[in-house]
From TrEMBL:
<dbReference type="InterPro" id="IPR010046">
    <property type="entry name" value="Mopterin_OxRdtse_a_bac"/>
</dbReference>
<dbReference type="InterPro" id="IPR050123">
    <property type="entry name" value="Prok_molybdopt-oxidoreductase"/>
</dbReference>
<dbReference type="InterPro" id="IPR006656">
    <property type="entry name" value="Mopterin_OxRdtase"/>
</dbReference>
<dbReference type="InterPro" id="IPR037951">
    <property type="entry name" value="MopB_CT_YdeP"/>
</dbReference>
<keyword id="KW-0500">Molybdenum</keyword>
<keyword id="KW-0479">Metal-binding</keyword>
<dbReference type="GO" id="GO:0016020">
    <property type="term" value="C:membrane"/>
</dbReference>
<dbReference type="InterPro" id="IPR006657">
    <property type="entry name" value="MoPterin_dinucl-bd_dom"/>
</dbReference>
<dbReference type="GO" id="GO:0051539">
    <property type="term" value="F:4 iron, 4 sulfur cluster binding"/>
</dbReference>
<dbReference type="InterPro" id="IPR009010">
    <property type="entry name" value="Asp_de-COase-like_dom_sf"/>
</dbReference>
<feature type="domain" description="Molybdopterin dinucleotide-binding">
    <location>
        <begin position="651"/>
        <end position="757"/>
    </location>
</feature>
<dbReference type="GO" id="GO:0008863">
    <property type="term" value="F:formate dehydrogenase (NAD+) activity"/>
</dbReference>
<dbReference type="Pfam" id="PF01568">
    <property type="entry name" value="Molydop_binding"/>
</dbReference>
<keyword id="KW-0560">Oxidoreductase</keyword>
<dbReference type="Pfam" id="PF00384">
    <property type="entry name" value="Molybdopterin"/>
</dbReference>
<protein>
    <recommendedName>
        <fullName>Molybdopterin oxidoreductase domain-containing protein</fullName>
    </recommendedName>
</protein>
<comment type="similarity">
    <text>Belongs to the prokaryotic molybdopterin-containing oxidoreductase family.</text>
</comment>
Length: 768
């Protein structure tokens, strides 16, 4: 654990290597001890082991895997779960909810694993132990007492397995609601919306092999050194095979600049590979203008030398809307607009266009730097336009690569965790279980908060995650949660969502990925889908953190059985599904048999999970250039790029992850690659902006949110750090800054909070 004063050093010029391994192992030893560390890490991402609870980056083929197929941050995620620290029952007698609400996320997480179901009664300020059956009865009472099922919402965080996710959405829909908000609403929703509309499938179209054999990979709005470290191994392989990498980012993220592969001796010892061949230091939100400018250059090059630049056969045979798109892009933005939006010089964009023209096979990767902006969906559509021009989709080494966050967030969607599942899915679900699932769309994350605030949602159930800390407008969200009659958290570790609750509250402790899951039918495995659509099994081996823990599946089945038995008797007219919940919890093969009947691509599920490395789900654009859009073709789209210069005296703030956190779980107070130690309340601003604003490096400031509703949002007491970020932009860590994200500031169409686009000013503290 770090102690002491906040310290700012130089940002690192390379990432990983010895320090990365050493940090991870020290953390593992601290939380798990030596023997448990060895035992646990040995099985991480191995074919007979468990899936890393960190990010969704895919594993290499089994014959191509390292014996230590994990990264520093994966090991830290495992240590957090497999820690020996426990939240004992006495803990809640000693700590009231009022007390817990004053604690930092870091402190809460450090208390260790939750091991007993606990209940906070109305009017009480303490949780007290409760039996499982009693807990299920409390939930069933509240749910069946609602006037209509849409007064409940069922949140999911993306660690939940396919099996648990499938049962959870079945429970919600059998109860009668599509209110299934999930972390994806705050994450890659914009990618799903843009890709579904343009290529007909809301998922990425490349495999690891594609990534390693492309000629050019653009890494846009993503910090893989911290958030997807194993991706760097693939980028390094690509470079060794002669490919190039371009980073587009307001921040010079260390790993993209230089990477030392800890899995190779030379990487541990040497200076490493310079990963990015070109770095475009773009302004926040400038990517749509950049991609339009690139496409305009490709169109001009084709005009100068017809038949040599665009893939005319692909455009004619597989797409719609080319002419409208081309006309729009040629005329839409002036060079001045592009400069204002991107902050880039024309020659930088020319250089990148030159690389694009030289590349036969190209992939664009992106993450939260594209998805959490007001125009995120249009921006990603523009990425697709750019790729379609040269036929860069549906062939080896080319395609779209949205890099997912949570380890099973993509699988949860496939299993039906979405407030707007298409009718085909609901038809199949209804047919399988003999009931009529509700058809009207449910609430996403932002709309759930609004509904709780307005008294329309009264019961909130969370399958994992940390809703109050991960969502925008913290003060508004916390008030909204407090208005609920009952909030239920199925969790592994303590977090702020256990301190800020409804009138009554339950914590239901659950097994994690690393733990052995034994049911009446014997030891169980679960399955997950990675960021590239590959599904594989995961089996934990550690003894559970406590004897009372239940698996997520057992908890869902318990809740569903208690609740639906009663709705069935109360509303005999509604066709209630006939599900033997107890039998499903006994043997997860039964769950998979249902999934195989309902979800396309899962035929023979059980047998294919036995295949080494699992199996790849179908993806028609990737597999056969078949585009399941209404026209049957990939769609070029016309997107209007709004140029929004930042008003003088203000900055555009992005909220990001440090190297020592997993979303709202804060492992430690260092952000090694960015040179920040022992503290998180820092705001990174470019030295030129600081000079213009007349603010000194190291100054103490409050961050003041500026938004159209006139409400003042303030994040107090930050230290200014002079940092090489793009002009006009600032960066600070989430979740400390979520208080600044207005609930109503969301991306068009995806309704994703604009966590990377918050207008602020700095309020400098008077000299002390
Ligand atoms: N260790 C660790 N791993 C994680 C997570 C974690 O918290 N810790 N979280 C997981 C989850 S759920 C997710 S979604 C992913 C998140 O993975 P990332 O998206 O890499 O995470 P962020 O920290 O949000 O970083 C956003 C990056 O985009 C850049 N950026 C921001 N705005 C713009 C823009 O307008 N244009 C461009 N071009 N770049 C921009 C930022 O400078 C930063 O480099 O990681 C997953 N993996
Ligand atoms: N300002 C700002 N806000 C953001 C973002 C941002 O970039 N900026 N990013 C957004 C993104 S991309 C995402 S994905 C969301 C994340 O939102 P969430 O998914 O809600 O948050 P996490 O912090 O990942 O949730 C951590 C908690 O999950 C529980 N947990 C861990 N493992 C398990 C498990 O195996 N089972 C169960 N049942 N519980 C478990 C633990 O109790 C832990 O405290 O946050 C979003 N919020
Ligand atoms: Mo995410």
């Amino acid at each position: 654990m770090s102690a002491g004063e906040l310290r700012i050093g130089e940002p690192a010029t390379s990432a990983a290597g010895v320090p990365g391994v050493a940090h991870a192992l020290a953390r593992c030893r601290e939380l798990m001890g030596v023997r448990r560390s060895v035992q646990t890490l040995r099985l991480l991402n191995q074919d007979d082991g468990y899936d890393c609870p960190g990010c969704a980056w895919p594993d290499p083929r089994p014959d191509d895997r390292s014996r230590a197929e994990f990264c520093e941050n994966g090991a830290k995620a495992v240590a957090q779960e497999a820690t020996r620290a426990r939240v004992a029952p006495e803990f809640f007698a000693a700590h009231s909810l009022t007390d817990l609400a004053t604690r930092s996320g870091h402190w809460l997480g450090e208390q260790g694993r939750l091991i007993n179901p606990v209940y906070k009664a109305a009017g009480s300020d303490h949780y007290a132990p409760v039996g499982w059956d009693e807990a299920f009865r409390i939930v069933a009472d509240e749910l069946t007492g609602l006037e209509n099922p849409d007064e409940a919402a069922f949140y999911t965080s993306g660690r939940t397995s396919n099996e648990a996710a499938f049962l959870y959405q079945l429970f919600a829909r059998a109860f009668g609601t599509n209110n299934l908000p999930d972390c994806s609403n705050m994450c890659h929703e914009s990618s799903g919306a843009a890709l579904t509309e343009t290529i007909g499938v809301g998922k990425g179209s490349v495999t690891l092999e594609d990534l390693e054999t492309a000629d050019l990979v653009l890494v846009v709005g993503q910090n893989p050194g911290t958030n997807h470290p194993r991706m760097l191994t693939s980028l390094e392989r690509l470079k060794r095979a002669g490919g190039s990498v371009v980073a587009v980012n307001p921040l010079p993220e260390a790993a993209l600049m230089r990477f030392r592969n800890p899995q190779r001796v030379s990487g541990v010892l040497g200076r490493g590979t310079a990963l990015a061949d070109q770095f475009l230091q773009i302004r926040l939100g400038g990517d749509m203008a950049l991609f339009q400018a690139l496409s305009a250059r490709l169109l001009a090059a084709e005009e100068a030398s017809p038949g040599t630049v665009l893939d005319q056969a692909f455009i004619a045979g597989h797409t719609t809307g080319f002419e409208e798109f081309a006309a729009h892009v040629r005329a839409h933005l002036t060079p001045g607009d592009v400069a204002t939006a991107t902050g880039l010089r024309p020659d930088e964009i020319d250089e990148l266009a030159g690389r694009v023209l030289a590349a036969d096979k190209m992939i664009v990767c992106w993450a939260m730097g594209l998805t959490q902006h007001p125009d995120a969906v249009a921006t990603i559509r523009e990425v697709v336009n750019f790729l379609l021009l040269r036929g860069n989709i549906g062939r080896p080494g080319a395609g779209v690569c949205p890099v997912r966050g949570h380890s099973n967030v993509q699988g949860d969607r496939t299993m039906g965790i979405w407030e707007r599942m298409p009718d085909a899915f609901l038809d199949a679900l209804g047919a399988e279980f003999g009931f009529a699932p509700p058809r009207h769309h449910g609430l996403d994350v932002v709309d759930t908060i609004r509904a709780m605030r307005d008294g329309r949602v009264k019961v909130f159930v969370a399958m994992g995650g940390n809703f109050v800390a991960a969502t925008p407008d913290s003060a508004v969200t916390e008030d909204a949660i407090r208005r609920c009659r009952l909030t239920v958290q199925v969790s592994t570790a303590l977090n702020r969502s256990h301190a800020i609750t409804g009138e009554r509250a339950l914590i239901l402790p659950t097994l994690g990925r690393t733990e052995l899951d034994v049911q009446a039918g014997g030891p169980q495995r679960v399955s997950v889908e990675d960021s590239m659509g590959s599904v594989h099994a995961s089996r934990g081996r550690l003894a559970p953190a406590g004897p009372e823990l239940r698996s997520e599946i057992a908890i869902i089945c318990g809740l569903a059985a208690a609740t639906l038995d009663r709705t069935a008797t109360a509303t005999a007219t509604a066709a209630a599904p006939t599900v033997d919940w107890a039998a499903l919890a006994e043997d997860y093969r039964r769950v998979r048999a249902h999934i195989a009947n309902v979800v396309p691509g899962f035929a023979d599920y059980e047998a294919r999970l036995d295949e080494p490395g699992g199996f790849l789900l179908p993806h028609p654009p990737r597999d056969s250039r078949t585009f399941p859009t209404p026209s049957g073709r990939a769609a070029f789209t016309v997107n209007t790029c709004e140029i929004r210069p930042t008003p003088p005296g203000h900055l555009l703030l992005q909220t990001i992850r440090s190297h020592d956190q997993y979303n709202t779980t804060v492992y430690g107070l260092d952000d090694r690659y960015r040179g920040v130690r022992h503290g998180r309340r820092v705001v990174l601003v470019s030295p030129d902006d600081l000079a213009e604003l007349g603010i000194a490096d190291g100054a103490r400031v409050d961050l003041i949110g500026v938004w159209t509703d006139g409400v003042q949002r303030r994040a107090p007491d930050f230290r200014v750090v002079s940092y090489p970020t793009a002009r006009g932009c600032a960066a600070a860590y989430f979740p400390e800054t979520n208080v600044l994200v207005p609930l109503d500031s969301t991306a068009k169409r995806s309704n994703t909070p604009t966590s990377k686009s918050i207008l602020i000013r700095l309020d400098v503290h008077p000299e002390q």
